[in-house]
Amino acid sequence: MGQLITGPTASHGRFLLGHVPCLKAAAAVFSSRRRGKESGRPDGGIGAATRGPPPSSLLYGSTCRIRPHQRHAQNATARAALPSSSSTGSAMATTASSNTFSFALRRLPLDLEGGGSYYSLPALRDPRIDKLPYTIRVLLESAVRNCDEFQITKEDVEKILGWEKTSMKLVDIPLKPSRVLLQDFTGVPILVDLASMRGAMSELGGDPDKINPMVPADLVIDHSVTANVVRSDNAVQTNMELEFERNKERFTFLKWGSSAFHNMLIIPPGLGIVHQVNLEYLARVVFNRNGLFYPDSVLGTDSHTIMINGLGVLGWGVGGIDAEAAMLGQPMSMVLPGVVGFKLNGTLRNGVTATDLVLTVTQMLRKHGVVGKFVDFYGRGMEELALADRATIANMAPEYGATVGFFPVDHITLQYLKITGREDETPTIEPTFSSYLELDLRDVEPCISGPKRPHNRVTLKDMKADWHACLQNKIGFKGYAVPKDLQDRVVKFDFHGQTAELKHGSVLIAAITSCTNTSNPTVMISSGLVAKKAYELGLEVKPWVKTSLAPGSGVVTKYLRSGLLRYLSDLGFNLVGYGCTTCIGNSGDLDQIVADAVTENEIIAAAVLSGNRNFEGRIHPLTQANYLASPPLVIVYALAGTADINFEEEPIGTGKGDRPVFLRDIWPSSEEVSEIVQSNVLVDMFRSTYEVITKGNPMWNQLVVPTAEVYSWDPSSTYIREPPFFKGMTMDPPGPRSINDAYCLLSFGDCVTTDHISPAGSIHKDSLAAKYLVEHGVKPKDFNSYGSRRGNYEAMMRGTFGNIRIVNKLLGCEPGPKTIHIPTGEKLYVYDAAMRYKTDGQDTIVLAGSEYGTGSSRDWDAKGTMLLGVKSVIAKSFERIHRSNLVGMGVIPLCFKSGEDMESIGLTGHEQYTIHLPSSVHEMRPGQDIVVTTSTGKSFVCTLRFDTEVELSYYDHGGILHYVTRKLVNAAC
Questions:
Q1: Are 80 and 262 in contact (CB under 8 A)?
Q2: pTM of the full structure
Q3: Calpha distance 275→583 (Å, rounded)
Q4: Which of 230, 332, 372, 508 is the most buried (most CB within 10 A)?
Q5: What is the pLDDT of residues 728-742, one digit of tens each?
């Protein structure tokens, strides 16, 4: 019996690296796909089923993948496929001869285009492997396969083998992912950096063409579309035209990058959301690189990259700066994580959705505490979850705080393979985990989350009471401090000739959007059925509620066109585009009449969306209460028009014949939904969607781009500007920089998010970024979003800490993007204060509470911080990706000691701070104590959050980009 990369167990739903039949089956997928297409057989990837479907429909979660090298070759805008060699045998021989663990290389016992090889973990003959969590085995295989005693050493492999003990010691290990995944908001600044690095390479005497992705990089343009036009049959086309009109410079730059950089695939706009496209198309599951087979693994520049964990592919979000280094062939240094085992039992009750389940899981894991950890799901309950349900749970790992939420490959994933006669076997040893949680799926109740954080789950039956408590509570994550006599006030106004009314809790935005839910046919079919039943009973959505449907791929509209899409449109949920839209703040403007009514009467308005994030200021500036809900509940709340309702006791509205209509009257049963999914979600829908995905659209294809390999920067551009990161760079690392008598630029409490630090949504007309754009000839209607301006450092610097909801302690409780310039006591915009400090040669720091930088992964949250002159952030704790981003930009992250914070030490933020650093990086070590003293005579000790030796090297060089550039120049000499 040989050994394989992945292995299932039908009885326990496990993934076992080192088990034979599964790699054999998975590898066969790549060959059978091509043969299937030629012979007329169904062409599908490793997919999933609904609960008990027939074979004809089991592939809806992940189908019709083209082999990786074929896909890149078919991309009209991609340049150069994966590296090739004259023969498979010589390529493998080279790999084996340079690898310490070449003895573990095994031939695949398959006739697979001349045969292939893989690294066998059982060949290591180490009993510790059997007890490793599944996710750790993937890290182990990668380390074994890439062990060259330079970037990855035998000692690194030993650390992973000893995970049960070493994970408690916070040891660091290197990881080389199989590929990198980007979206355009994070992808544009990465390509800008790479283009700038080419210029720096040239100036330092290196070869600019050395700056190229060395691992496959996929970029999906999905973050630029905005729901400007809604409730219209022409909304898709009109919104796309507006998208291209606003983003022509960005799209032209991206199209240039697709031809200038090797090994990069770019999916044009209007074709889907990155994580849904990754799940349904891009993910390989098993890589075949020149005949060497190995598990797919991915690092992405969006925190929800982890959605792919639902497919049994290990991946997660990292900072854009780390992603750049990985693209350039550098191993990512990471702390070997603890792994939480989450056991699932039972079956979801009738009518309970995957969204209800994920919000419950999110709350449980947040309470347990999984920040910086992997979560491995296991148990018999997994057998009851379709792959799309698993992907929904994996998608929200950032919201429950984990690095990974992993579902191993099991019989659900492998049903397609088993149909073709492949077997499986059952391992006898259960892995060891750092800690354990358990959930009976029968205990999950219908729920939503909000109004300001994803893990603040509220059961549907308790929603009305919770809403009234929020109005009453003091200002906070669950409070608005509305005076008692104003809580029930109703405001009436004229809405284009129709009498309208608003009150606290009125729903103004209802959006079915985000890969979290639109990738799941069950909840999307449910939403269609709810719309159908509501329409037939005579319910309508009030015209001042902004409704929209923005799915993550064209597959969704194909199966909804089976008879349900028209009912969604009848209720105002017209298709507005294929992209993230409302989930990332691209909600578009509210009708001005409604906006004025909200502003003038200080209404706490609500938004309900099927997304994954609902932080303050993210969805829309005028919706202070934002709730996450399943797609069918989004429709229900749009119909009700308010968050202030108990659906068990109160009707949603009045239908035909003045009959009250309740939630129970329109909510479909699980059996009803399953029947439609099985009969309408078909393999051909995936095939036809993804066969044309790289062909673009007429507007994309008509873009004319330059052909030079070194980008020619346009100084008049307001979208793409050469960043200043490499100006004045020499080959000598600058080393540690002293921080003396620094002023506090900003002082924050807990849970400051990346949306607070570097907004992605609309640019407010009164902001400094807006002023800058106007000065450069941009009209307000063309401001676009902060996310779309990330290629222009001037706009992004002005937007850093520019969220109108951010609360700076230096200003008391007053929200907004201003601060106190300490030396003069003036109240200034943050950017203006920072520039004054820089002009005067004064260093600055930021003080913060716990979970600083939580939210979406954004490199500009660190780039903007650095460009404003901030030398260090001192916080109670950091979100994982944001801490890494700060390190990558040379900003020092420091943590208060346990039990200490600004209040306990007695810091006001008006002091000056000196951070006592060693004069040489060789005197520094990860996690060491650093003494901070103030001008008022206080002294306290912080933990240096450079977590690995490699991160110290980045700091020594002034940041990761400078480190990589110098390394590439030296390598060429």
A1: yes
A2: 0.81
A3: 13
A4: 508
A5: 899 999 999 889 999
